[in-house]
Amino acid sequence: MNLAAAPHFSRVLEIEKEWIDYNGHLNMAYYNVLFDRAGDEVSEALGMGPDYARQRRLTTYTAEIHVVYVRELHLNDRVQASFQLLDHDEKRLHSYQELRHVDGWLAATCECMTLHIDMTGPKVAPFPPEVLARVEALRAAHAALPWPARAGRSIAIRRKNSAQQHQ
User: Fold this and answer.
1) 3-state helix, strand, coil in the chain (%, to 5)
2) Domains of the chain with CATH codes
3) For FRET with 113, which of 31, 36, 74, 89 sits at 20 to 30 Å CA-CA?
4) pLDDT of 167 strictly over 60
């Protein structure tokens, strides 16, 4: 992966037959699997892949995630995820991803807060200097990107006004 790519785009991902639910579309849990697989590509490029966890006993955990389902996916659909690093500090990553069908339409978005973890605790811990340098390089590459319109959303029932609610 080129850390200077802004944003990063994953390899093309495929929907697995077992992921289709009784409604005939991709079960909600597997959107997270797709986002996670795409995010793993970024983690690996940052030096925080499976070997990092095994050898250094350091890893990342998801602290918070907000997925918005925009359009259904079905078996045989192929998708690609973008990854944009919105912010970071010495222990956390704030990222935003979009899952798009290979035809270009938006299927889902994912905003995530990731923690860097010392597995011996487990406890939140600072990134090692060489990893932090790669995180900073990724953030610098993504700094010129516009803030995604769908980032920072909260869950709420939006009401027009109280007079209309009682009619």
Assistant:
1) 30, 30, 40
2) 10-141 (3.10.129.10)
3) 74
4) no
Alpha-carbon torsion angle 41, 78, 112, 130, nearest 10:
10
What is the chain's Cα-based Rg? 18
Cα separation, 83 vs 76, whole angstroms: 23
C-alpha span between 74 and 14 (Å, rounded):
10
**Global pTM exceeds 0.85:** yes
Furthest-apart CA atoms within the chain: distance in Å: 63
Closest CA to 32 of 69, 58, 61, 4: 69
Of the candidates 64, 57, 63, 47, which has an alpha carbon nearest to the alpha carbon of residue 118? 57
pLDDT in tens, 50-75: 999 999 999 999 999 999 999 999 99
DSSP class per residue in 86-122: EEE-SSEEEEEEEEEETTS-EEEEEEEEEEEEETTTT
> Across the chain, where does the E strand assignment appear?
8-9, 13-14, 58-69, 78-88, 92-101, 106-118, 123-124
CA distance 131 to 129: 5
